[in-house]
Amino acid sequence: MPIKIQNGLPAREQLEKENIFVVDEDRAMHQDIRPLSICVLNLMPLKEDTELQLLRALSNTPLQIDVSFMRVSSHEAGHTSMTHLNSFYNTFEELKGNHYDGMIITGAPVEKLEFEEVDYWDELCEIFEWTKKHVTSTFHICWGAQAACYYHFGLKKVSLPQKLFGIYAHKVLNRKVPLIRGFDDVFYIPHSRYTTVPIEDIHKCNKLVILAQSYEAGAMLCMTKDGKQIFSFGHAEYDRMTLDNEYKRDMSKGLSTPLPRNYYPDDNPGNKPKLTWRAHCNLLYSNWLNYYVYQATPYKWGQILDAEDMVKASKALTEKTV
After folding, report:
1. What sign does the dihedral 105-106-112-118 (CA atoms) show?
2. Catalytic: which of 111, 237, 246, 281?
3. Which of 50, 100, 160, 275 allows an S-S link to 44, with CB 3.0 to 4.6 Å?
4. Which is catalytic among the residues 51, 140, 142, 222?
């Protein structure tokens, strides 16, 4: 089934080249289908790159997805044109009356700042709170996951000795949870960050369950027991060349960024990077859409399940997958 996108979204051309089925708003109007409504709060500076990455990750299920893009109004984007933002994005103020089956909150390159120092922190906190009653399940990525863990559970991030950068191996901890159904015992996901939420603090939080972790990178994936909040501290959605672009950008700025781990063949930046995480990225997003969005969401918007009902639904799904 297709992903429904706004008319004229630039990502469409590349998605179609990859044989990903997309429909625009005009064609979707003629289909009598209740698609899943997914909102993406895109906090990344290169918004068009992130749009393509996430749309690609969401495309691997038989479900029809209707994607909307949200931006914060308390921060002026410096790397994306206002024409693009005005054409394809709405502010939280414009969208907060809606209900969504699922939401994705991306990372942002602000992790060296304290959360309260980020200029859109107050608005982001309002969005975090709003998701509790307006979104069936919210998927948080990298800094977005750290920020949400801090807001919802008081878990603080700490600075790392140097940038955590590369492709890292992760071990599955709880195979019975549907979010990681079908995962290999060990899988690889990119990381690119200067801070982390200590894994021992996550283990101590009785409202969170860690599903995958890395000896080198710490916690990669955790969730609330009801499945309403998913936290990915890595970047499963990254393209083959994303880390390469980041590394060369950092080098051009004279930063002491380490060579990405497990990325370039023979650790030679002149070699084409290895793509070792795409299958598990697709599986992660497919499982999220299937088990925590599609099977948990009400047919009519506005009937978001409360925490107790979500726990019951999650427990029933877990029993089915054992």
Report:
1. negative
2. 237
3. 50
4. 142
- Estimate the crossing angle of helix 278-287 against helix 47-57, to 10 degrees: 70
CA distance 232 to 137: 13
**126 flagged as catalytic:** no
What angle is formed at CA 299 by the lines to CA 71 and CA 174, rounded to 5 degrees? 75
Distance CA 128, CA 87 (A): 25
The pLDDT tens digits of the residues spanning 92-145 come to 999 999 999 999 999 999 999 999 999 999 999 999 999 999 999 999 999 999
Q: Comparing C-alpha atoms, which of 191, 194, 156, 193 is closest to residue 170?
A: 191
Arithmetic mean of pLDDT, 27-50: 79
Region of poorest pLDDT, from 23-27, 182-186, 223-227, 312-316: 23-27
Residue 72, both tokens: 């914060």
Residue type (1 letter), 18: E
pTM across the whole model: 0.85
Over residues 256-306, the pLDDT tens digits come to 899 999 999 999 999 999 999 999 999 999 999 999 998 887 766 555 555
Cβ atoms of 247 and 253 within 8 Å: the answer is: no
237 given a catalytic annotation: yes
Q: Which of 235, 246, 280, 281 is catalytic?
A: 235
Residues 233 and 198 sit within 8 Å (Cβ to Cβ): no
| Range 84-87, long-range pairs (CB < 8 A, 24+ positions) | 84/10, 84/47, 84/48, 85/47, 87/6, 87/8
Active site residue 93: no
Angstrom distances, CA of residue 244 to CA of 33, 195, 215, 231, 263: 40, 20, 23, 25, 9
Q: Are strands 135-141 and 158-172 parallel, antiparallel or unpaired?
A: unpaired
Q: What is the pLDDT of residue 140?
A: 98
Q: What are phi and psi of 309, to 5 degrees?
A: -65, -35
